Amino acid sequence: MAEIQQNEKGGGGKNKQKKQHLRVDFTPMVDMNMLLITFFMFCTTLLKPQTMNINMPMKDENLTQEEKTKIKESGAVTLLLGANDELYYYLGIPKDESTYTDSTYLVTSSYGADGIRKFLLEKNKGTYERIQELKAQLNAGVFVDSVFRAKSREVHETAKDYAPTVMIKPTELSTYKNMVDALDEMLICNIGAYAIIDLTDGDRFFLYQRTGNKDYLTEAGQTELAKE
Amino acid sequence: MAKVKVKKQSTFIDMTAMSDVTVLLLTFFMTTSTFLAKEPIQVTTPASVSEIKIPETNLLTVLVDKDGKVFLSMDNAEQKVATLKAVSEPYGITYTAKQVESFRKLQSFGVPIRHMQAFLDLPVEKQDKELQNLENKRVGVPAEDEKIEDGRGVISSENEFKRWVAAALEVNKDLKIAIKSDKTTSYPIVKKIIDILRGDELRQNRYLLITTLREGANN
Questions:
Q1: What residues 20-49 of chain B have any CB closer than 8 A to a CB of chain A?
Q2: Beta-carbon-side half-sphere exposure of residue A163 (alpha carbons within 13 Å)
Q3: Who's near B36: CB < 8 A, 6+ residues apart?
Q4: What is the Cα–Cα distance from B131 to B68, expressed in whole angstroms?
């Protein structure tokens, strides 16, 4: 406003407006930002930890032996997590003496793509393929996450009669990582039913037989062995 | 001789663009990152393909170190203080306002309840130092049923870990239990903690295992 008035009064080009170059020095601003960035880089993490849900069976002493072994024998897969990242598995439920003397019953395997995963994928092929199909549809945006979960539950439900049931039995010599890796394989292979269970004496004997390591046995087992 | 006129050149560098970039970067870091939680022990969590994000509220984190020492942390400070009071009550231990304030500031806690008052009286740096000393039997929530003693007297006479979890669940019913442990921890140590949680008194059978994302393992 003031400028315009001035121009009217002067009436000509007499009043030369000085061209002012406005320059703000941003250097301190940059300095400060750099400091803040450094601070954030050192004190924060970009990775948000993931979690894995597990449901453990209730510890119930009142359960009868029959209820405990409801798992169908045909689909049962037992994973034994040994020392030094070793992994063994066997199918079904060992019945009598003959299975314990059968050296082919317990299979030595390993964690990762070529070991147990290959075996479980083969065993769980139908369910795995159907879930992968659903996943592809989910990624393509055919349905939302909640529908996907309901559908995959349906797949597991229909496959219940022939899908493998995996029992994970970590030994005292295995690590926490082994347990998480084993659970991870269940997720990768889309196993519907799995649980972490304690070792039986038979399992311990299997491991002792295979590795010759007495530490797999319980104390009672070790003393018994010494007697023999 | 003609004087050579040195032209005065301004060395002004325009920092506007630079400033733009740094502000952008800063915004990125501020929005995407989360602050590192101060933990008494450093653990490397195992990798997994699970992509479930850890919930931000209603979480009780059980940090288990390689030797089986247990530390707890809760996200809600009010509930944390309420839990402390509930746990201390049977022992007849009460806290001053200053001690409560000190406890509120703790990220994760793990000292026997009999030692708690003395611990909270320490300045923050000394508290950190105390927790760092893993040889010290007065570090970590006692998770044994037996009585533990040392030269200075009784450390714990019961399974205080059980009591802490029970009290925390009493304060907040929706509490989820997350277990964080190093990948080299031997299985019996983790099993002991899980067995306490799923025992007859606590009856908790759902846990979150904190893991890091494994890259490209899904294919």
A1: 22-23, 25-26, 29-30, 32-36, 45-49
A2: 24
A3: A43, A44, A45
A4: 14
> Which chain A residues contact residue B182 at CB under 8 A?
176
Are the C-beta atoms of B112 and B141 separated by less than 8 Å? Answer: yes
pTM: 0.78
Residue of B23, B49, B184 lying closest to A184 (CB–CB): B49
B96 touches chain A (CB under 8 A): no
Of A172, A177, A188, Cβ closest to residue B183: A177
What does the block give as tokens for B198?
Answer: 């799923």
> Residues B91-130: pLDDT tens digits?
888 899 999 998 888 888 888 888 888 889 988 888 888 8
End-to-end CA gap in chain B: 81
Q: Residue A89 — φ and ψ, nearest 5°?
A: -145, 160
Q: Taking a C-beta distance cutoff of 8 angstroms, is the pair A81, A170 a contact? A: yes
Tell me if A40 and B50 make a contact (CB, 8 A cut-off): no
In this structure, what token pair is assigned to residue A175?
């690590």
Contacts of A176 in chain B (CB under 8 A): 46, 181-187, 189-190
B56 interfacial to chain A (CB closer than 8 Å) = no
Q: Report the alpha-carbon angle B94-B107-B167, nearest 5.
A: 50
Per-residue model confidence as pLDDT tens digits over B23-77: 999 999 888 887 777 777 888 888 888 888 888 888 899 999 888 888 998 888 8
Q: Which residues of A touch B216 (CB under 8 A)?
A: none
DSSP A68-113: HT-S-TTTEEEEEE-STT-EEEEES---SHHHHH-TTTSEEE-SST
Contact of B26 with A40, CB cutoff 8 Å: yes
Is residue A66 within 8 A of residue B55, CB to CB? The reply is no
CB pairs under 8 A between A and B: 159
**Best CA proximity match to B119, nearest among B40, B42, B58:** B40
